[in-house]
Amino acid sequence: MNEKxxxxxxxxxxxxxxxxxxxxxxxxxxxxxxxxxxxxxVDDVHEAVALADDAFRRGEWAxxxxxxxxxxxxxxxxxxxxRAEELAQKQRLDNGKPITETRALVASAAATFQFYAAACESxxxxxxxxxxxxxxxxxxxxxxxxxxxxPWNSPIASEAQxxxxxxxxxxxxxxxPAEITPxxxxxxxxxxxxxxxxxxxxxxxxxxGSVLGDALVRHPLVKRVAFTGGTRTGKQIxxxxxxxxxxxxxxxxxxxxxxxxxxxxxxxAVNGVLYGIFSSSGESCVAGSRxxxxxxxxxxxxxxxxxAARRLRVGDPADxxxxxxxxxxxxxxxxxxxxxxxxxxxxGTIRTGGKRPEGKGCDQGYFYAPTIIExxxxxxxxxxxxxxxxxLVAMPFDDEDALIALANDSVYAxxxxxxxxxxxxxxxxxxxxxxxxxxINTYKQFSISTPFGGWRDSGLGxxxxxLGIQQYMEQKSIYWGMNAxxxxxxxx
Length: 492
Ligand code: NAP
Prior knowledge:
This protein has helices at 42-58, 66-82, 84-95, 99-122, 155-168, 183-195, 209-218, 231-244, 266-278, 295-310, 330-345, 381-384, 400-408, 423-432; strands spanning 6-7, 9-11, 14-16, 22-27, 32-38, 126-128, 134-142, 145-149, 172-176, 202-204, 222-228, 248-251, 257-260, 290-294, 349-352, 371-374, 391-397, 412-413, 415-419, 437-440, 455-456, 459-460, 473-481. By secondary structure, the protein is an alpha/beta fold. The chain folds into two domains: 3-252 and 458-477, Aldehyde Dehydrogenase, Chain A, domain 1; 257-440, 3-Layer(aba) Sandwich (Aldehyde Dehydrogenase, Chain A, domain 2). A hairpin with a 5-residue loop joins strand 6 and strand 7 (134-142). The chain is globular. The chain starts with 5 loop residues before the first strand and ends in an 11-residue tail after the last strand. The site of NADP nicotinamide-adenine-dinucleotide phosphate (NAP) has 31 residues, from helix 7 and helix 8.
């Protein structure tokens, strides 16, 4: 993958270089380029949307019977599985996640296509209770061209999460992957084509979001945007969508609280808190980045947690023993470093980490050590803003009411974790926490059949779940007269 051959992008089913600037995808563990391509241009956006709209209107896909579309999606799932190891290795090179994580992401992408194939062929429209001699029903229709805009942290999984339900619903889809991680979306488009999705129904336009993403969102033929990324970008897109009265879904940022109660199973909680923040190097929307520990347990828990954080294996993403790889880019590492400096300036103290790790293959890539900061207040910026890196802020709490108030005191409301042996407390706290997902005695567990999304600045709408398909459809009510009785004004 290192030769300077330009990768083709997919513009309305035509594979060719983009008309935008040349750039390279870089392996974050070494800083070396692993693939070269030309980005799409705004003209490519217009061409892809026009071809997608044509392909959609031809009806070759949208008018297939659901079980026929499902069969193609099953094939996509199967083909992802057949190439799972190759895709996992490619994803590792594209964004530097450890191979154990990229294998899981590839498996999840296959499972997503399988799930939406099943959902597609079993989705029911409904007959609604009539209030007259009519057959009344609620049905769903595909929307047309859907834009899927994705970030760099879990490409194949987040792209599959949009592509599979949008295709299952009968739409054409244009993916705008993160500029720096274009490879998995291109692979998914190629697999869809081989599996039998008609040409033009899937396009992939790598390049700058502020240019291409913006052009896509504004395009009059784009009827729906599914966005995952930062809250600021999400709000910009939502404003444009409001002018078009276009439905959007927003999977945005987080600053999720993870709460360790005095009666928690300490081993289990240490392990869960570590995994919650440091897996994926903290580059995870649901990272449990604000830790609250019951005051009586605080000192003991923090000793155990910081020891364990120091022992995490940070290094070569290709090594299955590695637990934490590099950050995505030099620029992002610099952002993380600025936040750690901010934490110190706000009065925080570093319990562990707070620097670049040395040795063990960490000298070339964008590595940063697992970091825990204490002695901050929940109102400090370091505790309120999303860092999206391996940085945990830890604070003690005194009682349940104070804990709930602290946990909910954030503009974000994506996820939360509760560690306790007391099922009554877990239920009480779990119901009062404002978040799209609450994990109790576990963290970062996902199921494609369970809806996912955030409250407040963490998002709008839900992905996943059987009814996830309907997020990509317009609802329509049909009243069908069952007799020839004149209507009230039929008197002339
Ligand atoms: P980002 O900067 O918002 O970018 C996300 C995507 O939007 C990228 O493809 C980006 O293109 C594109 N984009 C940028 N500006 C745009 C614009 N004006 N119009 C249309 N598209 C535009 O976010 P990121 O830094 O890649 O990702 C990290 C963020 O994603 C974090 O906040 C994280 O919490 C969030 N996230 C949320 C979830 C969730 O499910 N809730 C999951 C994963 C990540 P470029 O590549 O050119 O920037």
